[in-house]
Amino acid sequence: MFHGSMVALVTPMNTDGSVDEVRLRELVEWHLAEGTHAIVAVGTTGESATLDEQEHIDVIRIVVEQVRDRVPVIAGTGANATSEAIALTQAAADVGADAALLVTPYYNKPTQEGLFQHYSALAQASPLPQILYNVPGRTGCDLLPATIARLSRYPNIVGIKDATGSVARGEEILATCGPGLDLYGGDDATAMALMLLGAKGVISVTANVAPRLMAQMCQAALDGDLQTARDINNKLLLLHQDLFVESNPIPVKWALAKMGRIGPSLRLPLTPLDDSFEPRLQDALRHADCI
């Protein structure tokens, strides 16, 4: 249903911490011009954890309005309270999102049965296409392939974003779930390998700063053109690594500010990039011809 380079879009902010709607709309237009295949609004990279509920919905609405059906818009609507995730998913549907991206409940660490019931409740509460999102390094919760397979029986659970960084885990999901559930990489460094194995795309941080190259790499990988995919990915390798020298989205927002695309603002408890990392990020941007 969704494929290719799906940018986990940053949320630009003004110096007072408010959402910068002008820059947000400009980013959307840039991604459309550069060939990004889908836009994910208010995921982890969009600082969903520090946006209040109204801001969360407003960012999704703004992105939907600006896209105007030119590519799919996937809304991050996960929460560690099932009722909150249901409410956000319904709100995203109301403002026109094409799908929801649902991170595993964080901090409260549910069992596999708890995860199954959480996602079952979401699937039954809204007909919106839903993409599961497993990122145990940030949530302290690991959605296992057997549970993913159980959930894939719901027709509106259409995919899984796996951000474990493990190609072996991706292979296990593909083998366990079969063609009824699409796999998306959630780790830029392993995305090409996963697509060559059968994944349908990547929900990408790197695409924020190198959208055209990421779109071209993904298309080549999906087409089975290994050499082209590898050549492009080699230009992106430093970004795949160095955009994570500090917690996401600190480095990617610094990079976009360096490129003149957004202002430098983050919300506490995130803080600006440490000066010692700036030369590494500049080298990575130059290697990918971003500056």
Automatic annotation (TrEMBL):
- Its gene name is dapA
The record's similarity note reads:
Belongs to the DapA family.
Function comment: Catalyzes the condensation of (S)-aspartate-beta-semialdehyde [(S)-ASA] and pyruvate to 4-hydroxy-tetrahydrodipicolinate (HTPA).
Record: active site: Y133, K161
Coiled-coil boundaries: none
Sequence positions that bind pyruvate: T45, I203
- NCBIfam families in the cross-refs: dapA (TIGR00674)
Metabolic or biological pathway, per its Swiss-Prot or TrEMBL entry: Amino-acid biosynthesis; L-lysine biosynthesis via DAP pathway; (S)-tetrahydrodipicolinate from L-aspartate: step 3/4
Where are the residues marked Part of a proton relay during catalysis as a site?
A: T44, Y107
Q: What is its EC number?
A: 4.3.3.7
**Which proteins does it associate with, and in what oligomeric form?**
Homotetramer; dimer of dimers.
What keywords are assigned to this protein?
Answer: Amino-acid biosynthesis, Cytoplasm, Diaminopimelate biosynthesis, Lyase, Lysine biosynthesis, Schiff base
Catalytic activity of the protein: L-aspartate 4-semialdehyde + pyruvate = (2S,4S)-4-hydroxy-2,3,4,5-tetrahydrodipicolinate + H2O + H(+)
Tell me one GO molecular function of this protein.
4-hydroxy-tetrahydrodipicolinate synthase activity
Q: Where in the cell is it found?
A: Cytoplasm
| Designated name of the protein | 4-hydroxy-tetrahydrodipicolinate synthase
What CDD domains does the record point to? DHDPS
- Source species, domain of life: Bacteria
Give the InterPro entries listed for this entry. Answer: Aldolase_TIM, DapA, DapA-like, Schiff_base-form_aldolases_AS, Schiff_base-form_aldolases_CS
Annotated HAMAP family = DapA
